[in-house]
């Protein structure tokens, strides 16, 4: 047991928890004022819903004793045996319960990311059922594959330091399927869907940036040199992506936007996540610069393919997470983290194909299972609100509240 590592990991877990309210503000500012509360509560309520699931069975299925490299067993249901002594497999210098808490915060934000794709048009009851089913059937197995000591992708050698595949690529693919399945918002392409409070969204993006230091540096599992490196490259990749996103939109559309600056920073944070513990500052700059331009250009895909991803989850998290996973295979260096591997640009092509395998398998698994879950949710609870409720706004129709009394 190491007191410094324990304190560091508790702070990191708190930072990651803070990201979910940050996401709520980021998403909440991007919708119309009549839907701000319904959008905010979908992220915020994930903290409660996933928290209970995590204690009951989530942690056990994600990290419990392995079954075939695919899923954990039920040995740790209701956190049986998960106590104050360190685990023999995970973050071995901190109490096992602290590692459990840290991973809970990751699990809480992942389904919340998906909600941006179907913002302004779903029932709260449908959101709840979808979140329970998706977390259980999609998130927990993918988490086990990548991060559990006996997970098959972990044993293959695919690298994901802090969640590029498990969280961003996974949720981004689910967001694409959900946006297509649920359909466009009423009046899409005709009515105005401008963000009602960009100031709120910038505040949310700032909180996400702040919390991301816990997200990435905390994934080192200890207050050590790798954590310090991950902390720095997290910031520099976000900075680079912010600049490149704004530069791209300025050149292509004539104006730099506040929304572009906020979105660019988030895109950089997404892209550096899987690589953060394995790359140096120069590599992080390149990853960030590419992410800003790539994710900005990816927004046009929803127009080309005619789906309504309300808050650009697919472009930022799906495309950003995919680029981050591939970039890890290009830029990872054992000089930064001896427990990692060398990527293509550091003399080893093997890692790149392992990263591609992880990307493709996650795409397929998340995409297919998300579609099935959407069908089941629609059948059992209904997913989309009525036209009348959508026109009224979800704050009133779903929660009998309004975001602003002016």
**How many DSSP helices?**
15
**Strand tally:** 2
Largest sheet: 2 strands, antiparallel
Order of strands in the sheet with most strands: 1-2
Strand percentage lies at under 5%
Low-confidence stretches: none
- The chain-level structural class is mainly alpha
Order of H and E elements: HHEEHHHHHHHHHHHHH
In short:
The protein has 406 residues and is mainly alpha-helical.
Describe this structure in words.
- This protein is mostly helical and 406 residues long.
- 67% of the residues lie in helices and 1% in strands.
- The chain contains 15 helices and two strands.
- Strands 1-2 form a two-stranded antiparallel sheet.
- Helix 2 (36-63) packs parallel to helix 4, helix 6 runs antiparallel to helix 12 and helix 12 (313-331) runs antiparallel to helix 13.
- The chain is globular and about 55 Å long.
- The termini are far apart.
- The model has no long low-confidence stretch (mean pLDDT 97).
């Amino acid at each position: 047991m190491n007191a410094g590592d324990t304190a560091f990991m508790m702070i990191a877990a708190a930072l990651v928890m803070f990201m979910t309210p940050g996401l709520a503000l980021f998403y909440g500012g991007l919708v119309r004022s009549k839907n701000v509360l319904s959008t905010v509560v979908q992220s915020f309520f994930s903290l409660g819903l996933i928290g209970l699931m995590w204690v009951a069975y989530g942690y056990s299925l994600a990290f419990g004793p392995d079954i075939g490299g695919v899923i954990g067993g039920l040995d740790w249901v209701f956190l049986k045996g998960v106590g104050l002594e360190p685990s023999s497999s995970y973050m071995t210098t901190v109490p096992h319960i602290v590692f459990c808490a840290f991973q809970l915060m990751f699990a809480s934000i992942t389904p919340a990311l998906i909600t941006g794709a179907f913002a302004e048009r779903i029932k709260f009851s449908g959101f709840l059922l979808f979140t329970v089913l998706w977390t259980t059937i999609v998130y927990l197995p993918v988490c086990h594959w990548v991060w559990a000591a006996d997970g098959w992708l972990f044993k293959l050698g695919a690298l994901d330091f802090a969640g590029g595949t498990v969280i961003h690529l996974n949720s981004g693919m689910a967001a694409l399927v959900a946006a297509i399945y649920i359909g466009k918002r009423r009046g899409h392409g005709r009515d105005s869907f401008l963000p009602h409070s960009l100031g709120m969204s910038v505040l949310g993006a700032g909180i996400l940036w702040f919390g991301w230091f816990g997200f990435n540096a905390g994934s080192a599992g200890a207050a050590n040199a790798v954590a310090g490196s991950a902390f720095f490259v997290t910031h520099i990749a976000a900075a680079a992506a912010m600049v490149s996103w704004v530069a791209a939109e300025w050149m292509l559309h004539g104006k730099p936007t506040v929304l572009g600056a906020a979105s660019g920073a988030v895109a950089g944070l997404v892209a550096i996540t899987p690589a953060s513990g394995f790359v140096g500052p120069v590599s992080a700059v390149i990853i960030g610069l590419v992410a800003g331009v790539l994710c900005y250009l990816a927004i046009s895909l929803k127009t080309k393919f005619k789906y309504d991803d309300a808050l650009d989850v697919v472009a930022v998290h799906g495309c950003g997470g995919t680029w981050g996973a591939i970039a890890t295979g290009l830029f990872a260096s054992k000089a930064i983290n001896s427990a990692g591997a060398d990527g293509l640009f550091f003399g080893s092509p093997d890692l790149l194909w392992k990263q591609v395998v992880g990307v493709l398998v996650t795409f397929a698994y998340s995409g297919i299972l998300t579609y099935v879950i959407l069908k089941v949710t629609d059948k059992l609870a209904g997913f989309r609100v009525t036209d009348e409720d959508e026109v009224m706004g979800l704050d009133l129709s779903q929660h009998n509240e309004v975001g602003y009394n002016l």
